[in-house]
# Entry
Amino acid sequence: MNVITDIATLGIVLGTIIPILVALVTKRVANPGQKAMINLLLSAIAGSLSVVVAQAQNALVNIDVSSFISAIALTWVTSVASHYGLLKPAGVTGTDGAVQAAIPGGVGSSNSVIVDQCPDDPATPGDAPEGRD
# Structure
């Protein structure tokens, strides 16, 4: 196998595992933005490691920035695609997934605030009916 094939194979394999790792390290109620950033961070780490591991057989020659960017992008796209296309519909990842249900701990706010705006409540004192202060 050549180095490009090794990098792509490692990126795809690691990208498929990353959504499970994100579910392990985040809470069920964690902000989706936090989960996305953790996914991106793990993709960057895994993509970089796939370049280094694949290039190890060549004594780390010909490593350039484009190899890292390509590997990170491939790993991230695979991670997002495997989450939404395979793991979430199968009930493995996601808020109601098996991983989140089995391991409730992790990063993220345990008490998320949901703001509910009722249209009957006056937004400002000037909107109140007359006779009320």
